[in-house]
Amino acid sequence: MKADNRRKEIVSLLMSEQNPTSGTALAKRFGVSRQIIVQDISVLKAAGFQIISTHSGYLIHRTPLAEKVFKVRHTSGQTEDELNLIVELGGTVADVFVWHKVYGKVEARLNISSRFHVKQFLEGIRSGKSKELMNITDGYHYHTVRAESENVLEQIEEALTDKGYLVPEK
């Protein structure tokens, strides 16, 4: 099993468990050493998964909200429209991240949940102090969006698609 697939399986397993899962149990399940599991957990934490190490194993922090990552692409001039679309449908834009070919994942927490937050964010960008992360990847970026239900996330996905912002999966 490739490392990426194993890590996805680790996240899936931890999400389904209520009790901590030991590194030894994970190592046995995936046929690798405990050290490999420790490395996998480090990579997953760096990727943003909130994995907690306890004396009896690993736990993953679950949010009570539904959550989905959307890969999008648009111009800087369309940022306000994109963010307002998400919050008006009941979503919270938890973060933005890009995959840089040299630096890897570059991420920023946003927690934008209202038109007011969108306005504040854009004032910071338009002040000229910084540029949007998407500018380093030709407009491609990702948002983790949280909402009260999967249905709300589906509505957001449909609206992003209708606007042409959502990047189709290959």
Q: Can you describe this structure?
A:
The structure is a single chain. The chain is α+β, with helices and mostly antiparallel strands and 170 residues long. Helices cover 42% and strands 25% of the residues. The protein has six helices and six strands; from the N terminus they run H-H-H-E-E-E-H-E-E-H-E-H. The protein has helices at 3-16, 23-30, 34-46, 79-88, 115-126, 150-163; strands at 51-54, 57-60, 66-73, 92-100, 104-112, 140-147. The strands form two sheets. The chain has a four-stranded antiparallel beta sheet, covered by helices on one side. Strands 1-2 form a two-stranded antiparallel sheet. Helix 2 crosses helix 3 (34-46) and helix 4 runs antiparallel to helix 5 (115-126). The chain is elongated. 20% of the residues are buried. The model has no long low-confidence stretch (mean pLDDT 91).
Quick gist of this model?
With 170 residues, the chain is an alpha+beta fold. The chain contains 6 helices and 6 strands, in the order αααβββαββαβα.
Secondary-structure element order, N to C: HHHEEEHEEHEH
Strand composition percent: 15-25%
Major sheet description: 4 strands, antiparallel
Number of strands: 6
Arithmetic mean of pLDDT: 91
Which structural class is indicated by helix and strand composition?
Answer: alpha+beta
CA-based shape: elongated
Helix content: 40-55%
